[in-house]
Amino acid sequence: MKKLVKMSLIVSGLVLSGISAVRAELIDFDGVNFDGKTFLEMGSYSEDGFNINATLDIGDFFLVPGPGSEFFLLSPDLIIQQNEESAILSSQTGALFTLNSAVLRGVYKEEEIENFSGNFSAFDADNNLKGIQGFTFPDTADLHNLSFGDDFKNIASVKWGTIDSFYAVDNIDLTQSVVPEPVSLLLYGLGGVTLAFFRGGRRQDGSG
């Protein structure tokens, strides 16, 4: 009986603490269905449990170029095609996540614009600003990997936008904590408690 009580306490602790696991996600836009078009225009995008929405929400400000588009480089990516517009990325479940890195590239390549610049802003669950990370890269056909610091850990959303030039975002690398549902934990734990109870009962019957 003492073992049963001890097991029950362990199960209760697991349920209350919420054992979590880390799940990695990569938003790469490779699943976009162009349906014969060279590019798609949209006002929002969803992939792997995350949403990307335009802040102004008054038009299809996102451009995803496909093969055959003059803006296509190596693979589909996301371009904000309206100056002073921004994109906001968040989990569909509202869970916190960590933004690790993203791949950026210039859109106009080797034309008049020498550099492209912008910034990423991280927000917590109460929509308070946690940090800002700016960047400036040469506006060429090169890919640039942007890594993020501690301010982008355990955030609820991240926003990025254009300042005076356009650029594409791809391979958004995220990690998200996944907490099992309490009911699942409870059923799993009760199964173990029941098994322990019956094993203990058999030993008592055999000793009598």
Describe this structure in words.
The protein has helices at residues 2-17, 182-207, and strands spanning 21-27, 39-42, 44-47, 50-54, 62-65, 78-80, 86-91, 97-106, 115-123, 129-138, 143-147, 157-162, 167-178. β9 and β10 (129-138) form a beta hairpin. Strands 1, 2, 5, 6, 8, 11 and 13 form a seven-stranded antiparallel beta sheet that branches. Strands 3-4-7-12-9-10 form a six-stranded antiparallel beta sheet, with no helix packed on it. By secondary structure, the chain is of the alpha+beta class. The protein has two domains: 2-13 and 182-207; 22-177, Protein of unknown function DUF4465 (Jelly Rolls, Sandwich). α1 (2-17) runs antiparallel to α2 (182-207). The protein is globular, with a radius of gyration of 24 Å.
Largest β-sheet summary: 7 strands, antiparallel
Roughly how much helix do the residues carry, as a percent range?
A: 10-25%
CATH architecture of the largest domain: Sandwich
Order of helices and strands: HEEEEEEEEEEEEEH
CATH topology of the largest domain: Jelly Rolls
CATH superfamily of the largest domain: Protein of unknown function DUF4465
* Broad shape: globular
Per DSSP, the total helix count is 2
**Would you tell me the overall average pLDDT?**
80
Beta-strand segment tally: 13
Portion in beta strands? 35-45%
Number of domains: 2
Any idea what the radius of gyration is? 24 Å
> Termini separation (Å)?
16 Å
